[in-house]
Design a protein that fits this description.
The chain has 372 residues and is an alpha/beta fold. The chain folds into two domains: 2-72, Phospho-2-dehydro-3-deoxyheptonate aldolase, domain 1 (Alpha-Beta Plaits); 92-371, TIM Barrel, CATH 3.20.20.70. The protein has eleven helices and 15 strands. α6 (208-216) packs parallel to α7 (232-244) and α10 packs parallel to α11. It binds phosphoenolpyruvate and manganese (II) ion. Manganese (II) ion binds next to loops. Phosphoenolpyruvate binds at residues 110, 136, 173, 201-202, 225, 255, 288, 291.
C-alpha cells in the first residue's frame, strides 16, 4: 500500500505521527518513506510493506494530511501503475519535461572521440532546435583492446560545449558508481552549463549494486536500457531497483534483443513493447533504433531501416528516441556503421515529427470513439 501525503506534509508533522501510530497497531507492517523534492514542494510517499491486507483504505484516506491511498500489487511497487493510481508519469529535469505524453529526441555521438566531433554535433543540434543529446564518455566494449571512451578527461569540454550550444540534457552511460561522482564534479567545476541523464547500458541492466548506488542519488535522472537477453519483467524489476532506492526519475529504454533471429539487424527490434511498458508502469519509454538495427540498411523505398524502425516506435507512442549520429561515421571510434550523418539530421527530425503527429491523430481517433 502507498500513502501519498499532501504536499509539504513530511515525517516531522503531527499528521505523519498519527498515521504511524495507527499503522503500528498492526503487526508486521513496515513503513518506508520516500521524499520527492520538487521545485516548489516536498512530496512524501509512505510505502507500507508487509501484511497490509488488514488495513482499511477508507480509514487511512480519512486521516488528515493524506492526499490519496493506493493498494499496490506485488510487482513494480514504486514505478508500476496500480488500480486507482494517479501518481505522475512525468518529471522535469533542467527545464526539459520527460513524460508518457511527450517526445524528446536525443541525437548524438555514441562515443565522444574529439572536441571537434562534439562541437560539430552540438552545433547541428542547435541549428535544428534540439536541446538534448547523447555523448558516451565511458564505453563498455566487448574487447578490452577496443577504445574504452575518454572517460572523465572529456567531460569538461563536453559540458562547456553543451553550454555554448544550449544543450540542456546529455544522456551518458555510466558503468561504475565512481563515474557518477566524476560527472557531478565536472559539472560543478564547469559551472553546470548543462544537465546529464545517467544511462545504464544493456550489459549492466542487472548490475544490482550499480543500480542501487545510481538509485540512491537524486541529482540525475536515469535511462535504464532493457537487458538484451532477459525477460521484460526482469528488466522492469531492474528499474524498480533504482526507484526503491529513492530515484523515481527513470526512463525505460528498448534497444533490441540479442538473437540471430533478427538478422541482418544487430538485434531483434522490440518496439512492440512501447505500449506494454507504458501500460505496466509510469515510466516514459525510450527507443534506441541505432543499437537495434546496427547498420545503414536501406529498403527499396530508399528509407533507412533506422528511420523505419524509429517510426515503428514513435507511432506506438515512444517518449524518447536515442539515436547515433557522427560528423564522419567512417572515422567514428565506436559504432560508426550505424551512425547517421549530420546532413541527415533535419530529415530524421522531420520524419519523427510526421510520425509523432500520426500517433497523436491515432490517440484523438480512439478518444473520439470512446466518447461515443
Ligand atoms: C549505447 O547506447 O551506447 C549502448 C552501449 O547501448 P546498449 O547498452 O543498449 O548496448
Ligand atoms: Mn554504441
Amino acid at each position: 500500500m502507498i500513502i501519498v501525503l499532501k504536499p509539504n506534509v513530511d515525517t516531522d508533522s503531527r499528521e505523519f505521527r498519527r498515521i504511524e501510530s495507527h499503522v503500528n497497531n498492526f503487526q508486521n507492517i513496515e513503513i518506508l518513506v520516500h521524499n520527492i523534492q520538487g521545485k516548489q514542494q516536498l512530496l512524501t510517499e509512505l510505502y507500507l510493506i508487509g501484511n497490509t491486507a488488514a488495513l482499511s483504505i477508507d480509514e487511512i484516506k480519512s486521516f488528515p494530511g493524506v492526499e490519496h491511498v493506493i493498494r499496490v500489487s506485488e510487482v513494480y511497487r514504486v514505478l508500476g501503475r496500480h488500480k486507482g493510481d494517479s501518481r505522475p508519469s512525468h518529471f522535469t529535469y533542467n527545464g526539459v519535461t520527460f513524460s508518457q505524453d511527450n517526445l524528446n529526441v536525443f541525437a548524438g555521438l555514441c562515443a565522444v572521440d574529439s572536441p571537434e566531433s562534439v562541437e560539430a554535433m552540438m552545433k547541428a543540434l542547435q541549428e535544428n532546435g534540439q536541446v538534448c543529446t547523447r555523448m558516451g564518455a565511458y564505453k563498455p566494449r566487448t574487447s578490452p583492446y577496443s577504445f574504452q571512451g575518454h572517460g572523465a578527461a572529456c567531460l569538461p569540454y563536453v559540458f562547456d560545449l553543451a553550454g555554448k550550444y544550449g544543450i540542456k540534457v546529455i544522456a551518458m552511460e555510466v558503468t561504475h558508481e565512481s563515474h557518477v561522482d566524476e560527472i557531478s564534479a565536472a559539472l560543478r567545476s564547469t559551472g553546470s552549463p548543462t544537465g546529464v541523464m545517467l544511462q545504464i547500458g544493456t550489459r549492466n541492466t542487472q548490475n544490482f549494486e550499480l543500480l542501487k548506488s545510481v538509485g540512491r542519488q537524486q541529482e540525475f535522472p536515469v535511462l535504464l536500457k532493457r537487458g538484451f537477453g532477459i525477460t521484460l519483467d526482469e528488466s522492469l524489476h531492474a528499474a524498480e531497483y533504482l526507484a526503491s532506492e529513492g530515484n523515481q526519475k527513470v526512463i525505460f529504454g528498448l534497444r533490441g534483443m540479442k538473437t540471430n533471429i533478427g538478422d541482418p539487424h544487430r538485434n531483434l527490434v522490440d518496439f512492440a513493447h512501447v505500449p506494454v511498458v507504458k501500460n505496466l508502469t509510469r515510466m516514459p519509454v525510450c527507443i534506441d533504433p541505432s543499437h537495434s538495427v546496427g547498420g545503414r540498411f536501406r529498403s527499396s523505398d530508399r528509407i533507412l531501416d533506422i528511420m523505419h524502425i524509429t517510426a515503428q516506435g514513435v507511432v506506438a507512442g515512444a517518449n524518447m528516441v536515442l539515436v547515433d549520429f557522427h560528423p564522419d561515421p567512417s572515422k567514428a571510434l565506436v559504432d560508426g556503421p550505424q551512425a547517421l550523418r549530420l546532413d541527415e539530421l533535419p530529415l530524421f527530425l522531420e520524419d519523427v515529427r510526421i510520425v509523432r503527429r500520426a500517433y497523436e491523430q491515432r490517440v484523438e481517433l480512439y478518444d473520439a470513439a470512446s466518447a461515443i
